[in-house]
Amino acid sequence: TQLLEQSPQFLSIQEGENLTVYCNSSSVFSSLQWYRQEPGEGPVLLVTVVTGGEVKKLKRLTFQFGDARKDSSLHITAAQTGDTGLYLCAGELGGYNKLIFGAGTRLAVHP
Amino acid sequence: NAGVTQTPKFQVLKTGQSMTLQCAQDMNHEYMSWYRQDPGMGLRLIHYSVGAGITDQGEVPNGYNVSRSTTEDFPLRLLSAAPSQTSVYFCASSYVAGAGDEQFFGPGTRLTVL
């Protein structure tokens, strides 16, 4: 059983469309991180959210941390082909930067 | 600044063989960790270290050993490889082990156990 449920697992959209990826858990996290991973490479950090209710924007990407620090979402506006990749959410549980990862959302943006 | 480096990039083992996956970082990071990534399961923490001489178990430690004799290096040892250990292994490091500190991941080692 995944401690951190990420949905959808796959997403195939046209360039210019909007999309939202969700991460949900019954556990409370001290922080929640979003990563993007390209084939054959390690994950690269996009953003960290720490405070319940926090919203962070990174150009066309908007990240939100739930008020109870149990869930998070990633919203991409006007997707581009360069957004194609695997998006991973990871919650810090138990301190020491120990991360629990979601299974990932594989996004394909078509021209 | 090379960041986090891992060797080898690919490895094929037979059941029962042993090997060491190497990980090094040149950023003077205190915290280092090992994850494995399997299809449909995301990354799972194997072992971590909060500084030289200090290691602890993560979510899936069985079958793996680690040591941290220097700040720079954090090798992962498989004493007797099993097919269930076929996976992609990632090493990561961060400056401190604080909440939300950015972790930098290496490029991964793809391991196949026959």
Question: Overview of this structure, please?
Answer:
The complex is a heterodimer of chains A (111) and B (114). With 111 residues, chain A is an all-beta fold. Helix content of chain A is 0%, strand content 53%. In chain A, strands 2, 4, 5, 9, 10 and 11 form a 6-stranded mixed β-sheet that branches. A 5-stranded antiparallel β-sheet of chain A has the order 1-3-8-7-6, with no helix packed on it. In chain A, strand 4 (31-37) and strand 5 form a beta hairpin. Chain A starts with a strand and ends with a strand. The mean pLDDT of chain A is 93. Chain B is mainly β. Helices cover 0% and strands 51% of the residues of chain B. Chain B has no helices and 11 strands. Chain B has strands spanning 4-7, 10-13, 19-25, 31-38, 42-51, 54-57, 64-66, 76-78, 87-94, 104-105, 109-113. In chain B, the strands form 2 sheets. In chain B, strands 2, 4, 5, 6, 9, 10 and 11 form a 7-stranded mixed β-sheet that branches. A 4-stranded antiparallel β-sheet of chain B has the order 1-3-8-7, with no helix packed on it. In chain B, a hairpin with a 2-residue loop joins strand 5 and strand 6. The mean pLDDT of chain B is 94. Classes of the chains: A mainly beta (111), B mainly beta (114). Chain A binds chain B through residues 2, 4, 6, 9, 30-31, 33, 40-45, 48-50, 88, 90, 92, 95-104, and chain B through 4, 31, 33, 35, 40-45, 48, 50, 56, 58-59, 90, 92, 94, 96-108.
